Amino acid sequence: MACKSTVAAFFFFFFLISLIEPGLSYEIQSVESDCTNRWIHIRRLPSSFNLDLLTNCSEYSLYDNFCPYLLNHGLGPKTHNRSHSWYRTDPFLLELVFHRRMLEYPCLTQDPTLANAIYLPYYAALDALKYLYGPEINSSSQHGLELYKYLRSDAAEIWDRYEGHDHFLVMARPAWDFSQPLNIDPPLWGTSFLELPEYYNVTALVLEARAWSWQEQAVPYPTSFHPSNLHLLESWLKRVRNSRRRSLMLFAGGGGISATPNIRRSIRNECQDNTTDDDASVNLNNQQICYIVDCSNGICEHDPIRYMKPMLQATFCLQPPGDTPTRRSTFDAIIAGCIPVFFEEQSAKSQYGWHLPPEMYDEFSVFIPKEDVVFKGLKILDVLQSIPKAKVRKMREKVIELMPRLMYRRHGSSLVLKTTKDAFDVAIDATLERISSRLKDVSIQ
Ligand SMILES: *[C@@H]1O[C@H](CO)[C@@H](O)[C@H](O)[C@H]1NC(C)=O
Ligand SMILES: *[C@@H]1O[C@H](CO)[C@@H](O)[C@H](O)[C@H]1NC(C)=O
Ligand SMILES: *[C@@H]1O[C@H](CO)[C@@H](O)[C@H](O)[C@H]1NC(C)=O
Ligand SMILES: *[C@@H]1O[C@H](CO)[C@@H](O)[C@H](O)[C@H]1NC(C)=O
Ligand SMILES: CC(=O)N[C@H]1CO[C@H](CO)[C@@H](O)[C@@H]1O
Prior knowledge:
Elements: H1 2-19, H2 23-30, E1 40-42, H3 51-54, H4 94-103, E2 117-119, H5 124-132, H6 145-153, H7 156-160, E3 167-174, E4 203-208, E5 216-218, H8 230-242, E6 247-253, H9 263-274, E7 288-294, H10 305-312, E8 314-319, H11 329-335, E9 339-342, H12 361-364, E10 366-367, H13 370-374, H14 380-385, H15 389-402, H16 423-441
């Protein structure tokens, strides 16, 4: 126990040190960029709303000890010592990653009255742990009230200027975890942050949005790939493009072992019929039909090596819904140039509109309604095999073209790489646009 908190304190220390890294402001000034309508002010918050939360990284026994993944500003430790771009990234630490990237955003202003948007560096998902898994489990409607109190008491004019409409924050979990109705007691699951009228005006960037909400927007799950210069990105893209695709379809995940019919079970059944041992494979044009990466019990979570190589060698990657409709695996697969196969619109099309334009899905993905597979006996294999080879090649090209805007590059990247917009840049552009139109809508300019 003592050892764990020492480790936590150690990461915490480095986090602090690097926040005041002197090279930063020099770099910011050297970026040529038009900041008109793009100014962002980072709201100063007491450390109890962000850095202090990291010190409790080993406190929640029902949840993983996430201390090791705080390294590298939330990118996690490198997969191995000589790796340049690959990390054991925990997607729920996107708040740290985002905060670090905000610090090198070229259009920061100290003056909130000049800002087009106000960023709240609040680690909402980390603060939620005490309600989700910790001692505050019966007070989950309180999540966010302390922050609100602070925003309305300290420099209240910052909030008051636009009644919070210009504020945004990152909440690195599915919105489902923050949407517990206020009047249900004791709570079934989740905190009520997004149900609080106090935050109705604030834009929340989440990993998965609700279908009917207007205050949150989904952004890509972070994967394990975080290149820091253009060369590293381009050499990966080249590897993806040249990779031999030995299996037709791949599923990396768990579930599907219960008797009740569902899409994961259908996938498992279809694959078991068609999966063969590596050496004695029944092949179709030298292709393995189906490849399952068994990720039961979370064994893949911080171990990208388990699934990235198989994904690199697969043509299609199946993305069935699990506990919730979206999955990090969708983005891992795209990074590997594996064409995603979706079974419901909530898995991506109705979620990631900022990063993956909804009208483009036919060009880079396959859609097979899950009901047709589970209840009508449609075979995924038949659908995928009927797609002409030329079309498959075009789809993969599109996946590779879209890939850079779905990855989060490493903080402190080379200036050249910065000209390629990544998931963070796309999210900031769209947040600024959304806030600007929101301010027009409520006509309080
Ligand atoms: C860390 O956990 C301890 C014990 O559960 C708690 O008393 C403390 O308030 C927590 N700190 C933060 C910053 O959440
Ligand atoms: C990686 O480097 C660290 C520190 O230099 C060392 O302690 C560790 O053993 C190395 N790990 C491997 C797998 O080489
Ligand atoms: C939360 O409430 C439930 C039911 O009222 C109770 O059994 C449980 O002990 C409470 N948990 C805590 C941590 O107070
Ligand atoms: C949210 O904005 C509306 C006006 O659009 C305003 O009436 C309301 O007070 C604001 N909420 C908060 C908590 O500031
Ligand atoms: C190539 C191959 O083994 N195909 C089989 C896949 O599984 C289905 C049944 O689900 C068989 O009909 C195919 O022959």
